Amino acid sequence: MLGMQLPTRLRHAGFGNLKSSQTFAVNVLGGLDHAGLLALALERRLGRPRGSFEVERVRFEYAPEAMRDVLGEKGRHSTQIDAVVWLREGARRIALVTEVKLTESAFGGCRGPTAKDNPPTRREVCTGHGDRRLSDCYLHHGQYQRRYLHHASAYARLGAALGNGGCPLRADGYQIARNLIVAAWLAGGLAPDEAPPPAGDAVDEAVFMVLSAAETPALHGQVLASLGPGPSVRLSALGARWLDAAKLVASVAAEPRARALTDWLALRYPPVFAP
Q1: Which domain holds residue 218?
Q2: pLDDT tens across 151-163, in order?
Q3: Which has the closest alpha carbon to 50: 62, 31, 61, 37?
Q4: Whole-prediction pTM value?
């Protein structure tokens, strides 16, 4: 199943290693899609009646040029969205903007508060209040030119939960903010003068999802753990939803088409998909 939906040019250096979240994304989401069971699995995990969803397409490492413009991700270290699933529910189109975690310990934070190339006068704005946050933002200046703080309204709940008066991008919030911004962008929720999504990518609703194993360390770090009991509650506080990979696959395990996939996943990821 490896690589069937991921061109070689988009593969990370560790692609093929079963500890890679990119490999995990392709095996789980790509595997369900290949088996024709992704729509049914999502219906069951998201509480929709059978037949509600039609999967239009799944894209891994999503990073169109317009998205890079919105985020200010123009350099060689520019980011991608792990996976986007486009669904149709009746006349409505929905995008699931998905961050995939397996062995990672965190969602990442801005290096601004500790970076040696960030002057002390600018480090102050990372942890304090004031009107200088955008003008002195480490990500906004120098080599990065990121525009995350331009879209702070898209991750307002993240700011309320993690900010504590300082910038939420510093406290394990960087990837969470990125995905919330992209979800808002696909659903037309950013400023009207921003570059629009490519033709066919815009939707009526976009939801930020985290697909992971239940024991993925990133879901149990100090910051997220402070938001409540369990991954679902913690991510909900940030405006996101959690997809437990094992339960997603188990929800369709009784379907005849699922046997080859469930056996394959159980063999390669026994801690996650143990029978």
Answers
A1: 16-107+174-273
A2: 988 988 887 776 5
A3: 37
A4: 0.91
